[in-house]
Amino acid sequence: xxxxxKGTKILVPVKTLQKVLAFALVGISASACAVQxxxxxxxxxxxxIAAETPNVIVILTDDQGYADVGFxxxxxxxxxxIDRIADxxxxxxxxxxxxxxxxxSRAGLLTGRYQSxxxxxxxxxxxxxxPNAGLPLSENMIPAVIEPAxxxxxxxxxxxxxxxPNFHPLERGFDEFFGFTxxxxxxxxxxxxxxxxxxxxxxxxxxxxxxxxxxxxxDAKGYLTDILSDExxxxxxxxxxxxxxxxxxxxxxxxxxxxxxRYTDRFPHIEDEKxxxxxxxxxxxxxxxxxxxxxxxxxEIADNTIVFFLSDNGGPLVRAKNGSINLxxxxxxxxxxxxxxxxxxxxxxxxxxxxxxxxxxxxxxxDILATMVAVNGLExxxxxxxDGVNLVPFVQDAAFKDMxxxxxxxxxxxxxxxANWKTGVLIGxxxxxxxxxAEMLYDIGADKEEKFxxxxxxxxxxxxxxxxxxxxxxxxxxxxxxxxxxxxxxxxGDLEESAK
Length: 500
Known about the structure:
Blueprint: H1 14-31, E1 43-44, E2 55-61, H2 80-87, E3 90-92, E4 95-96, H3 102-111, H4 142-146, E5 152-158, E6 176-180, H5 203-206, E7 212-213, E8 216-217, H6 224-238, E9 244-249, H7 261-264, H8 273-298, E10 305-311, H9 338-341, E11 345-348, E12 357-359, E13 363-364, H10 367-375, E14 378-379, H11 392-396, E15 407-413, E16 420-427, E17 430-435, E18 438-443, H12 459-473, H13 494-498
Parallel strand pairs: 2-9, 2-10, 3-12, 4-13, 5-6, 5-9
Antiparallel strand pairs: 1-14, 3-11, 6-7, 7-8, 10-11, 15-16, 16-17, 17-18
């Protein structure tokens, strides 16, 4: 196994080089006649592209609990296929996301930047007629950043980055799109309605819209998780001969809780009905992951395909509870305690990363794009610097000598966007959390369950972390995206009907 070393001279594939040159020529031509709307994306660094551009697959689940994968100790919900990613690569014990709720967490992952930098501190409004309700158009997303390396990019599943046409995935750099643009969906395709997004009157209506392939509504049959898995396998088969990036964003196991008997019947030992359905939903995802990994093997492209698996936040324990378990941690979705932001997280890249690594230091979802940029020898934009790091050299070091992050930060503002509701900062093992101004300090290394507040005996540490957060926040923007409670005024009940 040969590590990727900075400055190593290696060959560039002709196909990749052709795409890079074509992109450069188009950029030169365009700059002569138009003003560039977005900041420059990553450029190709000389003599730094991997000899064979790796494919990249990011598998994101929705509201899955930390304890609900086999590689984190689940006993009642087996996930043998998801576990393959960790077993054949790296399990990140302390894998964090940048926010404890769907939309901002995805905004951070897709840009590689703290979403607070561009005012995305709450779920955006789902109003399909609001041209500002989505991830700001000024921000470059993964496909635009890595396009110079020759990638074809697709998103399959949940978008949740804006319903207005301005924010459509194909307008944000993706070459293909299959799924739905809003934040959730009914799982039974036979219940979908032919409703135009522009005519939807509530988020509940959006849960029932037909699926979209690129820009066209399609007829679909079956269980949504299976449909998304089918599309993922098909994409890999079609793009096996060129570098591809797949963002496979399952909406499972997010509400509504729905799973057919062929999945729930696998869990006769689970008596709680809610958890049994949840288990079926997770099991359906696991089947899909297995089919995807098997396809990579069959096509003999597994070795040079980087696969990430993670959840967008912890499982919900209060609103929209889905039966998930975040133990041994405190809290869940919406919290800045470990249960809200510490998630199942694994990575596999057989060509470069050893198998069976149990990585102990904190890593972040922000690191995914930074890793993609680095392994392709790209230079990130200086106007939109990334907040993540390249994970590869850290997981290649068997001694785990260096830490990827000295500090990690979180900010969750009030729904009126005028003040911070919850904040968090992690430096080493010390983690400071505030909730409505109340301060807590924990030693995550010794107390991962966050039972013992140490701020009284570690006053200097608490003060230091407070100052570090204030310094970080001074670089952030304020909430600028229209938020979730601005549309509609209230739910109309259709979602509950559709879940029956």
